[in-house]
Amino acid sequence: MSSSSLEPQTKYDVYLSSREDTRKNFTSHLHAALCQNGIQTFFDVDVLKKGMDISLELLKVIEDSRCSIVILSNEYASSSWCLNELVKIVECMTTSGQIVIPIFYQVDPSVVRNQTGRYEEAIRQHEQHHRNDSEKLQSWRAALTRVASLAGREVRDDTDEPSLIQDVVVAISEKLRS
C-alpha cells in the first residue's frame, strides 16, 4: 500500500515530513504502522537517498495528500527544505483543508511556536544565509507558529512510542473516513 516513488497522478492519504534525526526510528516505525493499516503514505527517505532534485515533485505530492504528519524534532528547523515543506503544508491546510497533525518529538510545542532554544538558533543560521529573502524567513516563522498552535502529540523520554504510534494511526484512519 505504501509507495515512495513520485508518480504525478498518485494521491496519498498521508505525507510524512521529518528530519533525519527521527527517520530511522520513530518516523520509520510510524510509516510502517500506517502502511500496515492500509493508509497510503508517502515517506521520502528512499527518494532522497538517490540525491535527485525533486523539490517540485515533492511539493506536488504534498498538495495531493489528504493529510500531513509533521514530526517536529530538535533538528527540524535547521533544514531549509523541511521549512519549505512546512510552508507548503500550511498553505494546503489553509487553502484546501488538508489535515495536519504535528508530532513534537523531544521538543516542547512552545519552543516551536515561539522559536526559542534550538529553533531560535536554527532561524538565526537561516537569517545569515538568506539575508536578502525576508519573505522566505517570515513564511518559515509563520508556518512554525501555525503548526505548533495545532493540537498534536508529544513524544518525551517516558512516552510509550508504540502506543502513541497506534493512537496516531487510529486518529488518521478516523479522519480519513470522515
Automatic annotation (TrEMBL):
Q: What class of enzyme is it?
A: hydrolase
* GO terms, biological process: signal transduction
Keyword set, alphabetical order? Hydrolase, NAD
Q: Which InterPro entries match?
A: TIR_dom, Toll_tir_struct_dom_sf
Keyword Hydrolase present in the record's keywords: the answer is yes
Reactions listed under catalytic activity:
NAD(+) + H2O = ADP-D-ribose + nicotinamide + H(+)
Which EC numbers characterise this protein's activity in its record? 3.2.2.6
- Where are the annotated coiled coils located? none
**Signal sequence range:** none
- Which intervals hold domain TIR? 10-176
**Top-level taxonomic group:** Eukaryota
Protein name (Swiss-Prot/TrEMBL): ADP-ribosyl cyclase/cyclic ADP-ribose hydrolase
